């Protein structure tokens, strides 16, 4: 399972306060940023239209699980990245989230 987690571009974010808890190397490469740069990224800044993210958050807060949602993201050099995402809300205590290896400078 760990192998899949590291191979697919993936990030885990908090809904509020909005910060990235985990990002793997494939996702960093896709967005064209370093791990150090990712520490300062606000998740809304990754979306081509941040309103799309807020619509997903509203649906998640209503208890909906979202699969195969297509959205546009900002890529390196301000190009557009299209992707599908699977979203679900997990209520996790901060201590448990620490197990996701929050962003760290290597």
Describe this structure in a few short sentences.
The chain is α+β, with helices and mostly antiparallel strands and 106 residues long. The chain is built from five helices and four strands; from the N terminus they run H-E-E-H-H-H-E-E-H.
Could you characterize the architecture of this molecule?
- The chain is of the alpha+beta class.
- The chain has a single domain (2-100), classed as 2-Layer Sandwich (Beta-Lactamase), CATH 3.30.450.
- Helix content is 31%, strand content 23%.
- The protein has five helices and four strands, in the order H-E-E-H-H-H-E-E-H.
- It has a two-stranded antiparallel ribbon with strand order 1-2. Strands 3-4 form a two-stranded antiparallel sheet.
- The protein starts with a helix and ends in a 9-residue tail after the last helix.
Q: Provide the CATH superfamily.
A: PAS domain
| Strand content range | 15-25%
Largest pleated sheet: 2 strands, antiparallel
Strand neighbour order, sheet with most strands: 1-2
* CATH first level: Alpha Beta
CATH fold field value: Beta-Lactamase
Top keywords for this entry?
two-stranded antiparallel ribbon, two-stranded antiparallel sheet, 106 residues, single chain, disordered C terminus, alpha+beta, Beta-Lactamase, 5 helices
Describe the secondary structure blueprint for this structure.
Blueprint: H1 2-7, E1 11-13, E2 20-23, H2 25-31, H3 35-38, H4 50-61, E3 66-74, E4 80-87, H5 94-97
Antiparallel strand pairs: 1-2, 3-4
């Amino acid at each position: 399972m760990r192998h899949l987690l590291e191979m697919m571009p993936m990030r885990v974010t908090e809904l509020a306060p909005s910060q990235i808890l985990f990002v793997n190397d494939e996702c960093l490469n896709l967005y064209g940023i370093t791990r150090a740069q990712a520490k300062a990224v606000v998740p809304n800044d990754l979306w081509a239209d941040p309103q799309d993210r807020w619509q997903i958050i509203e649906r998640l807060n209503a208890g909906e699980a979202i699969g195969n949602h297509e959205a546009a993201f900002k890529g390196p050099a301000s190009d557009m990245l299209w992707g599908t995402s699977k979203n679900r809300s997990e209520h996790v205590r901060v201590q448990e989230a620490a197990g996701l290896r929050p962003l760290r400078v290597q």
